[in-house]
Amino acid sequence: MSDTAQRSEQLYTYQDYLTWPESERWELLNGRAYNMTPAPSRKHQEISGQLLTLFNNYLKGKTCRVYAAPFDVRLPQLQESDEQTSTVVQPDLVIVCDTSKLDHRGCKGSPDLVVEITSPSTFQKDLKKKFILYEKVGVREYWIVYPEENTLSVFHLTQEGKYSRPEVYTEQDSIKVGIFEDLTIELSEVFA
Fold it and tell me: Does the keyword Lipoprotein apply (predicted)?
């Protein structure tokens, strides 16, 4: 199934989500269930692994933590209990600096940085639905990686709570990670 395949038109909660087979990967966006791409491409996995390694090396001895999918990020709306949460996503990578948001199920609340690595089947969801969602819940920095083009777009949350225009990088560029004062990533390493 493509990622746009829905379980049904019914609305679901995190309580429902927890009963689904572990062999299936789903996300909930405002109660709608979306099937995750079953097998990411080799290039997707290489990019994810390289970014995970670079972030892990930087974060040694620091409070912030980095996690790779599958890792549940629950984004409850006001007055939603954990079980009634209608939005659960599994970004390719997340960095969480407020460790009080972490529990045995993943993260409850907004991560500080989210990385989504696109595929043809997830492109529209990552660029539209998740962009709006991450902006709304206050993710400070959102990266969208385009593996086929070896490019990356970075969105920073402004004081007004909106994402800035994208900063676009290619494999020859370096990225200064906005949520950290002293981390720069060479994209030639990421897209090698």
Answer: no
Task: Return the number of other C-beta atoms located less than 10 Å from residue 49's C-beta.
Answer: 13
Rounded Cα–Cα distance for residues 59 and 110 (Å): 19
Residue 127: count of CB within 10 angstroms of its CB: 15
Predicted TM-score (pTM) of the model is 0.91
Q: Where are the domains of the chain?
A: 38-190
CA–CA separation, 99 and 5 (whole Å): 33
The angle subtended at Cα 95 by Cα 23 and Cα 124, nearest 5°, is 60
Quote the CA–CA distance of 84 and 31 in Å, as a whole number: 9
| Cis amide bond preceding 70, omega within 30 | yes
- Domain made up of 38-190: CATH architecture: Alpha-Beta Complex (3.90)
Tell me how far apart the alpha carbons of residues 84 and 15 are, in angstroms, rounded to a whole number.
Answer: 6
